User: Fold these one by one.
Assistant:
Number 1:
Amino acid sequence: MTCLTPYRRRSVRRAAMGLLLPTVAILGTAVFAGCSKEPESPTLLQARPQPYIPDVPVPHKFQRDERKSSYTSTAGHREVRDVYQGKEPSLAVRNFYLHYMATAGWELIDDQLQNGVYVLNYRKDMEKCEVRIERIPNGSYGTVTQTRVVILPQ
């Protein structure tokens, strides 16, 4: 068993501290470097794999409100009044429709923001489509984003 003199104990402590401090500094830098967040670029919402209406995309996880929706089709023309609800922010839903309606063949006529409600108007062949996106109360659960899609003959 070796006996360390007070001088020798201080030398061992200094050597240990000499290794410990750089190690802590390096680990601390690595940990805190991971905490700094760069602003994220906006991501486009994904579409449901099977939309309710073939040429009208719906954001993934948005559900149709059957009580508020209707669909009729006779002799080559249709009238659609669909309502969907989901948790995504209204701006993200607006951006979703700006992208996916174009890929479904709809031409954007105008894009408006009216009192917190996004209104997008489209046309395709002999039809016009209005998409209204707004936040609405959801009972005691806060708010949800509601999307109303109305397709009528021109």
Note: Residues 79 and 152 are 5 Å apart (CA to CA).
Number 2:
Amino acid sequence: MTIGRIIKALFIAYLLGVLFWAGAYFAYIIAVENANSNFTIPSFGGYIWIGQSIVSLFLLFIIAGFCYLSFFRVDENKLATIKWRFIFSPKIREGHNIAVGCQQGNWARVYGPGWRFIPFIKWFGEVVVVTSPMEKDF
């Protein structure tokens, strides 16, 4: 396992941990109505469920955004490659065309048809879809 993959795995684990603990914190705040707490959910005239619904919608929005940024689909008879452009990733060495590990540039891996999950790929990279060479008539 290369250093780039280890850094990528640790970064993803960190982001997932932040999402988990943020969700756990908000669930704790919702479950425990403590009058002495610095953070209180607005009651909207005694209707605490409205404040809980707003917090739940906020968490749902964060989860939906994570899914949108992480999943992509490759259509039938198409192939996809990834062009990684995360700012803290190392640049490709001079004279090289394919990125190795988490380097910025075109990844060597080719993805076939179907759904794929790469955390935050639409934010830190670009999915390049091309027509499969097998589709062309000869």
Note: The longest strand covers residues 78-84.
Number 3:
Amino acid sequence: MRQEVNLKMLSTIWSSAKCMHLMTLSQVLHFKHNCGELESVATELKSKGFLSHMEFFMLPFQIQLDEKELTIDFTFEYAGKVHDDTMMENLLPKMCADYRIYNCIMFHLISNAIKHCPMKSRIRVELSFWERLEADSVLTGELSTKITNEGSFDELL
């Protein structure tokens, strides 16, 4: 029993520290952007793929999700077709993006979705990726992220 309490406390501390780190990084990047000092640097993901990245990204939020008894559903669309999460690692190409900025945006979107979502409800994360061939035969793409919850602002008033 004591080990479980220690593990829960350690998980809570880690989760809070990770969320504070993401929030601080977000504020620093926002400040740099406002000062004109933010340079976007596109890199490949360091994890196995985008799904692995999202699963790892969600870990700091798990305690908040458990406390409110929330579930998160991921929907992945690639080239206009919806796929289940087991196929996505193979379908998504190695995407290059500025993941520092993407993670900061995701942090705020997920935080707000959790905050404004009623107890025992669902948050939906929809990720869409479209490839396109640029004029100089360079393959590029567009990643769209949409986060919705079952709550609404009016319900919270």
Note: The helical segments are 2-34, 50-58, 62-67, 85-91, 99-116, 153-156.
Number 4:
Amino acid sequence: MFIKAGEKQYELNTKLGTAKRIEGKFKLPITKIFENIETAHISELMDILYISAHAPGVTDPDFFAALDDNLDYTDIMSTVQEFVLRILFSGDDDAIARKLEKYPVPEDVKNQFREILGLPVVKIEKPIATTESLNPENLPG
């Protein structure tokens, strides 16, 4: 996974070691960090991207300026959302699809994940109302 900021392109590492470094930075389990991503401050989102784009001990003072000067909030948030999913579901498209099938969330949420990850969305069959189900005697209340 890559992020482009101006003329620079950064590869984001989505392996377990990166997840552990993010936990260390925020002093929270990675699942708690991901649960709160929608309410994170911009600087926290940028820290997540910095950690994923740099090996331990590597400093890059231009990274934050490149993000500030070239990206907007939606760019940062959508990149972090995809990054989170790629930490959870690594591998090729087939491997990710198999992992998603087993993941304990509703199918509509899985489809949101698939969309972010660029995978085909699965059609969800919705039950069709029948005259029997619409009969007032069968309605609750």
Note: The radius of gyration is 20 Å.
